[in-house]
C-alpha cells in the first residue's frame, strides 16, 4: 500500500558545507520520499558569483533551495531563477546565527525584523508558483517569549502570505556563542513548537533540532506536520534507509547499503570525468555503515585514499570489501 504523504513530512536540514549536490544525490539513493534541502546559498552568490550555485541533478527531487538574503528584489530574482531550474520549494534562512551571516543582514537576526521578512516572502511569492517557506528559531537573545514568536509568525504569515514554517526549537544568541554552540547550548523547547501548531492550525509547521531517531520523529508527527533531521541524518545516513517505510507508509524494502554504494558508481564516474575529486563525493558516505563491523575500516580506507590523484571507483570498491562481507544480504542499517 502506498500512502500519498507530503514530502515535508520528513526532511533533511540545510547544512552549510555538508548538504551539497553530491550529498543530496547520495541521500536520494537511501530514501525516495524525503524532502532534501540545499545548503544555504546567498542571493549575492547566485546573482554575482562566477560559479553555478543552483546546480543540482534531476534525480535529487524533491529538493528545496535555501536562500540567504534580506533584499526582497534580490530574493525574488533568485526565487524566479530557482523555479525555472526545477526546484520544488524556496526556503528563507531566518535561523543561522553566525557573525558572517549577521553581517550580511540575514539569518536569525531577521527574527527581529518580521515586517522585512514578510516583505521578502511576499516578493518571492509574487513571482513563483512553488511554495516559499521560512526556517526560523523560537527566539533571539532576550526576545524569546512565546508572544514574540507568535507575533513573528503572525506577521510573516498574514503580511507575507507564508503558509509553512520550519521551527528550530531553540533560541539563538546572536553574540557570545558560536554557530556550533548555538546548536547545543540553548535548550530545546518542543512544547513551544507544539503550542504554535495549536495556535496556528491553518499553517504547516515542521520541527527541527535534536531529532536523532525515527521513533522521535514519529512522536513529533503526532503534534506537527513535519520533522526535519540534521546532523544525525548526515553522520549516520543508514537511518535514511528506513524512512520511506517507517514515516511514509510505503511497503518498499529498506535500501541495502551495499547496493546503495554501488548505485553511486555511475554518478561518481560521471563526476570524475568532469574533474570532480573522488573525495568530494565519498566524504558524504563515510557514516553509512555506522554500528556495523568493518565500519571503521571503511571510513579509514576512504579517508586515506579518496583524495589521492587518480582515485576512482576502485577505491570505493576496495573500501566496500572491508565491510560488505560482514553484512547479511539486504539487511538494512538502523
Automatic annotation (TrEMBL):
It is an enzyme of class 1 (oxidoreductase). FMN binds at residues 14-16, 66, 135, 168, 208-210, 230-231. The keyword Flavoprotein applies. Its cofactor is FMN. GO terms for molecular function: flavin adenine dinucleotide binding; FMN binding; tRNA binding; tRNA-dihydrouridine20 synthase activity. Residues 12-320 form the DUS-like FMN-binding domain. The active site is at 96 (proton donor). Keywords: Flavoprotein, FMN, NADP, Nucleotide-binding, Oxidoreductase, RNA-binding, tRNA processing, tRNA-binding. The record marks 93, 180, 183, 296, 299 as: Interacts with tRNA. Its EC number is 1.3.1.91. It catalyses: 5,6-dihydrouridine(20a) in tRNA + NADP(+) = uridine(20a) in tRNA + NADPH + H(+); 5,6-dihydrouridine(20) in tRNA + NADP(+) = uridine(20) in tRNA + NADPH + H(+); 5,6-dihydrouridine(20a) in tRNA + NAD(+) = uridine(20a) in tRNA + NADH + H(+); 5,6-dihydrouridine(20) in tRNA + NAD(+) = uridine(20) in tRNA + NADH + H(+). InterPro entries: Aldolase_TIM, DUS-like_FMN-bd, DUS_fam, DusA, tRNA_hU_synthase_CS. Catalyzes the synthesis of 5,6-dihydrouridine (D), a modified base found in the D-loop of most tRNAs, via the reduction of the C5-C6 double bond in target uridines. Specifically modifies U20 and U20a in tRNAs. HAMAP family: DusA_subfam (MF_02041). Belongs to the Dus family. DusA subfamily. NCBIfam families: PRK11815.1, yjbN. This is tRNA-dihydrouridine(20/20a) synthase. It comes from Winslowiella iniecta.
Amino acid at each position: 500500500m502506498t500512502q500519498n504523504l507530503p514530502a515535508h513530512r520528513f526532511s533533511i536540514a540545510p547544512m552549510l558545507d555538508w548538504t551539497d549536490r553530491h550529498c543530496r544525490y547520495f541521500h536520494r539513493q537511501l530514501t525516495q520520499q524525503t524532502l532534501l534541502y540545499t545548503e544555504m546559498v546567498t542571493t549575492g552568490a547566485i546573482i554575482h558569483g562566477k560559479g553555478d550555485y543552483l546546480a543540482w541533478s534531476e534525480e535529487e527531487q524533491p529538493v528545496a533551495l535555501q536562500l540567504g538574503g534580506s533584499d526582497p528584489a534580490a530574493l525574488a530574482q533568485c526565487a524566479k531563477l530557482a523555479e525555472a531550474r526545477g526546484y520544488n520549494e524556496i526556503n528563507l534562512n531566518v535561523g543561522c546565527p553566525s557573525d558572517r551571516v549577521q553581517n550580511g543582514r540575514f539569518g536569525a537576526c531577521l527574527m527581529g525584523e518580521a515586517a522585512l521578512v514578510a516583505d521578502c516572502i511576499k516578493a518571492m511569492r509574487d513571482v513563483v508558483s512553488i511554495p516559499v517557506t521560512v526556517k526560523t528559531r523560537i527566539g533571539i537573545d532576550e526576545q524569546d517569549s512565546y508572544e514574540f514568536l507568535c507575533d513573528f509568525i503572525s506577521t510573516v504569515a498574514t503580511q507575507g502570505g507564508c503558509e509553512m514554517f520550519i521551527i528550530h526549537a531553540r533560541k539563538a544568541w546572536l553574540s557570545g556563542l558560536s554557530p556550533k554552540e548555538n546548536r547545543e547550548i540553548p535548550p530545546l523547547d518542543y512544547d513551544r513548537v507544539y503550542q504554535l501548531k495549536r495556535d496556528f492550525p491553518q499553517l504547516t509547521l515542521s520541527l527541527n533540532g535534536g531529532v536523532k531517531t525515527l521513533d522521535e520523529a514519529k512522536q513529533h508527527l503526532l503534534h506537527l506536520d513535519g520533522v526535519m533531521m540534521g546532523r544525525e541524518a548526515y553522520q549516520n545516513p543508514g537511518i535514511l534507509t528506513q524512512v520511506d517505510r517507517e514515516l511514509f507508509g510505503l511497503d518498499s524494502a529498506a535500501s541495502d547499503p551495499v547496493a546503495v554504494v554501488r548505485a553511486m558508481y555511475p554518478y561518481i564516474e560521471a563526476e570524475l570525468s568532469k574533474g570532480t575529486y573522488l573525495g568530494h563525493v565519498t566524504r558524504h558516505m563515510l557514516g553509512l555503515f555506522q554500528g556495523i563491523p568493518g565500519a571503521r575500516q571503511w571510513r579509514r580506507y576512504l579517508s586515506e585514499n579518496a583524495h589521492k590523484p587518480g582515485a576512482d571507483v576502485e577505491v570505493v570498491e576496495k573500501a566496500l570489501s572491508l565491510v560488505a562481507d560482514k553484512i547479511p544480504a539486504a539487511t538494512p542499517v538502523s
